[in-house]
Specification:
Blueprint lengths: L1 E3 L7 E6 L8 E8 L9 E4 L12 E4 L2 E3 L24 E4 L3 E18 L5 E7 L4 E5 H8 L13 E18 L4 E9 L3 H27 L1
Antiparallel strand pairs: 1-6, 2-3, 3-11, 4-12, 5-8, 6-7, 7-12, 8-11, 8-12, 9-10, 9-11
């Protein structure tokens, strides 16, 4: 079973940075095989289920396909080593050859994705608040998980990748040069507590300056 969508206009842990710049914003923070649930401090963006829904502030466009089961168009992501007993029984995203899935995000600092049967020809392009972009390839993902050979059941090609960014993420594209790039679900988190703390300190400093200025004007 499949459905197409289009947008109307509108285990291993590693800190690995990729990209042309030494100051790459997005890092692969961790990979955990068979971790079907989003990380504990994240919210669920979508599990691609029926009915298909997205968290508030998110949008999805492009030409990718929503599938159930395994066929020539995609393999249901595996949540364990037993085939097909551990496969995702619900709807999932399949980005087939020359397709793209385009996500718009509401300014998040972290994104996690459950990727099934990772292949070297899969890639993710992150778009950042500061205006830059960064590509992470299937080769780079496999360097962290241990493999990118598209195995439908093995632990190092089926699991959750978590990405951190020093510049908030406002969207990302999922691409594949051939069939296919499969995702079971996506999670996300707002800016890290340290970032919020810095913002609060900044707001406090501004408030203090305003109060001080008002006192000086009153005395004058």
């Amino acid at each position: 079973m499949s459905s197409k969508f289009k947008l109307a206009a509108v285990a291993a842990t590693a800190f690995v940075a990729f990209g042309a710049s030494a100051q790459a914003a997005v890092t692969i923070h961790s990979y955990v095989s068979y971790q079907a649930a989003v990380n504990g401090d994240e919210y669920l963006v979508t599990d691609f289920g029926l009915p298909f829904t997205l968290a508030s502030g998110w949008a999805l466009g492009g030409t990718a396909t929503l599938l159930t089961g395994t066929s020539g168009l995609g393999a249901a992501p595996a949540f364990g080593p037993t085939d097909p007993g551990d496969d995702d029984p619900t709807q999932y995203l399949s980005v087939q050859g020359s397709q793209v899935a385009t996500f718009t995000a509401p300014n998040v600092s972290r994104v996690s994705m459950y990727i099934g049967s990772l292949d070297d020809y899969n890639s993710i392009t992150f778009y950042l608040k500061g205006g830059g972009s960064q590509v992470i390839t299937g080769f780079q993902l496999g360097a962290v998980s241990g493999a990118n050979d598209g195995d439908r059941q093995q632990a190092d090609t089926n699991g959750r990748f978590t990405f951190y960014s020093t510049d908030n993420i406002i969207g990302f594209d999922l691409n594949s040069t051939t069939n296919s790039f499969e995702l079971s679900n996506i999670g996300a988190a707002v800016p890290e507590p340290a970032t919020w703390a810095m913002m609060i300190i900044g707001f406090g400093a501004v408030g203090s300056m305003v109060r001080s200025q008002r006192r000086k004007q009153a005395l004058a």
